[in-house]
Amino acid sequence: MPQNFYNQKIEDVAQELETSSSQGLSVNQIEELRTKYGSNSLTSKKKISIWQRFLAQFKDFMIIVLIVAALLSGFVAQEWTDAAIIMIVVILNAVLGVFQETRSEEAINALKKMATPNAHVRRDGQIVEIPSTELVPGDLVLLEAGDVVPADLRLTLTKSLKIEESALTGESVPVDKTSEPINEEKVALADQDNMAFANTNVTYGRGEGIVTETGMNTEVGKIATMLNNTDETDTPLKRNLNQLGKTLTIMILLICAVVFVVGFFTKKGTEPTDKLAIDMFLVAVSLAVAAIPEGLPAIVTIILALGTQIMAKHNSIVRKLPAVETLGATDIICSDKTGTLTQNKMTVEQVYYDNQVHNSSNRITTDNHALMAMVLANDSKLDDNNQLLGDPTETALVQYALDQKIDVHNLLANHKRLQEVPFDSGRKLMSTINENNGQYFVAVKGAPDQLLKRVTQIELDGKVSEITEKQKDEIMLSNQNMAKNALRVLGLAYKTVEQLYDDPTTDNVEQNLIFVGLVGMIDPERPEAKEAIKEAHSAGIRTVMITGDFQVTAQAIAERLGILKPGQDERVVTGAQLDEFSDEYLEKHVADFDVYARVSPEHKVRIVKAWQAQGKIVAMTGDGVNDAPSLKQADIGIGMGITGTEVSKGASDMVLADDNFATIVEAVKQGRKVFSNIQKAILYLMSCNVGEVLTVFMMTMLGWDILAPVQLLWINLVTDTLPAIALGLEPVEKGIMKRMPRGKKSNFFSGGVASSIVYQGILEGVIVLTTYQLGLNFGPHMGNANLQHADALTMAFLTLGLIQLFHAFNSKYIHQSIFSKRTFANKWFNWAILISAIVMAAVELPFMTKFFDVTELNSTQWLIVLGAGICMILIVEIVKGFQRLSGKK
User: Fold this and answer.
1) CA–CA separation, 884 and 881 (whole Å)
2) 4 to 184, 189, 197, 216, 813: CA distances (angstroms)
3) Angle, alpha carbons 617-619-622 (nearest 5°)
4) Is the dihedral of CA 608, 611, 617, 621 positive or negative?
């Protein structure tokens, strides 16, 4: 079946589909066609059961290691509490993953809900109402204002028919439809004026059309297919956690194996071989459990969840937790124009009369005939509350009059419409004949070039005179200048007559007109969008405009927003040009373009993929059905909460509650904060774990007494929870929006985190080992080797625990000094450290010492322990100081 029905004559389309353009299908054809084409409905890919989704969550490498660690903790080390904590974390993460994946299917469901329930069709010449799901190719569908188009149609009859297609094509104003064939081979969807597409809205007039495609073969069905076939992209967060888990786990398991082997052979002969093997195995398992940050997935989830709450207060509703962090890594924001960068509301910007262009803010008098023509030659409705309904272009004209403080209700009441010549896409004009103090006022508006053909006079400063060719040239020049600024221009004219017409037509009504002005309208940019784009640029984020609108409109808006500099025509590309580009060419040259005009849904997906092929993290904003596939393809899809369709929201990772582009910039800031805070938590956890591993490893290698499994697990429990979570609540760092995007290749170890983990972990281990040696040489039990060793091991145990709490302060800033007022700004962190310190010190209580196998220390020994913690802060501060000096140089 040919795809380009817009090229064909009506009779050829009817013949191809074996139908009649006047009578429709015969009843006898219906069953056969329904069997052939199926239901006129959208289908989704085979659903995965909840149980399958749940099991899939356990395929992650780090999750598998955590499960093994939990089993070893329980069955080997008999630490059932720790095993239970690990499994709770694993299961909660699995449940969260299932919840997020289930919500992603909402896009297809929303597409299905958009379909109109019933359709009026002509079958065997009779008009019948049927469920739209029963439509088949060849059916003759009747359309009128207010209808949702039920399938893709080749229009056969149009009477002032206008269809609003912005959700599908991005075109910001309703399209005037025609039934004439289009004599071009490749025509963009938005330019197929003789076609009507499923799920678009009829705003004006009426028409008929032959169904050409149904169900998944319609244009909206193709979007559903793309949604079904689009793979979910791994977020940077998920990639980073996977990388972290694999690297970390392998390193820890190797170290634990070395600890077991070295400890076994070092202590061989000191106790029975089988008992020694079990003891060293328990130490190795305890060390593994302590070293693996089993709380990290939970801590990351908590930090992300807290981030979503903060973002919600800034009108950013996050639907998928990883989106919080992904947005902070964004390199490119591919933004839809209509409704995102612009207001999706036609507005009068300039009015030309008396040989001058006036801004819309200039006052105009009530008796100005240009204003009267705007309001009277207009089919929009105005209720008692001045709420406007109708075509966006026409409502803009009446809104302009209201903004001019004109009493529109009174004007309409005194100039009742008695006759009219409706708009027609052929002549591109509309006229009304209205009462006017005993005479009749003829108001005309339409395309300036068509209007001037019917004009014989011109009104200047309230006086009417014959119009000259020079004046017509000046009017057309003003029209061109307004059009270059992306304004949609209409011409205005009038005349007065003494009596009504017997038969009002264009031949008698729209002749000998008096030209009175031009009016230029535009879907204006959002006032806050320009500043937001500027701030995004300072953060190293590039804004790319993608729209279904015409090239001149897109370029003008882009220049006004600062996306383009004036005259950068070469940075604007159209959908037709994109069709000529191979995927390889587009990937290579995608950075050469900032504006894409007259594009289709397939183009949007290609653009996103091209940027991703460059290694960029791409955010895509949009509000229409046509945006859904690209929203899903992007690393982060951002839907519009007010103007957005349910389809676009369902395909999005985040929804803007206020449809404000500036909100994205605030969300980027919060996303960067979240990543920074996760980095801080990882720096803290990993450096502490390195310190623990190094301490036990060196104690084993040197043949010293080593920390007991219960001590290691207690340190892990006390220090790995509250302080790490509290680091996730750190406020936004100064200058965070002056940094360049970290990019797809960066990870949690970037920006000096890896080196900090290594040297700070080593430092922690060295300080603990030094404390152990000091414990052997100071204390009340000098001379009693057993008690002295017990004191030293207790000091090492308390130092290892408390030094990590001191080190939590270091982790607040990777390179900056902690000696500032901001250090104590996070009250949650302050309380977390205090509570954790009390719990850690509680092991010294008389009834706790036996359980943890520790001694009660005196004041001197406690001073050594606390001094070790202070040394940790001071030495790290000195290293940071040298790092800052080196960075400045």
Assistant:
1) 5
2) 10, 11, 13, 17, 61
3) 160
4) negative
CA gap 57, 67 in Å, rounded: 12
> Maximum CA pair distance of the chain?
126
pLDDT tens track for 557-594? 899 999 999 888 899 999 889 999 999 999 999 999 99
- Nearest to 346, CA basis, from 404, 408, 390: 390
Distance CA 803, CA 230 (A): 49
What count of residues does the chain have?
889
Higher-pLDDT residue of 784 and 835 is 835
Q: How far, CA to CA in Å, does 345 sit from each of 144, 276, 383, 545, 850?
A: 23, 79, 19, 18, 75
Angle value at C-alpha 630, between 654 and 173, nearest 5 degrees: 90
Catalytic residues: 336
DSSP symbols for 825-876: --HHHHHHHHHHHHHHHGGGSHHHHHHHT-----HHHHHHHHHHHHHHHHHH
Structure tokens at 694: 């190094």
pLDDT in tens, 405-451: 888 989 999 999 999 998 877 788 999 999 998 899 999 999 999 99
**CA-CA distance, 628 to 631, in Å (whole number)?**
5
Please report which residue ranges of 159-272 form alpha helices under DSSP H.
Answer: 166-169, 219-229, 236-266
For tokens 């092991």, name the residue.
Answer: 843
Q: Residues near 437 by Cβ (< 8 Å), separated by ≥ 6?
A: none
Contact 778, 578 (CB under 8 A): no
φ/ψ of residue 621, rounded to 5: -105, 150
pTM (predicted TM-score): 0.69
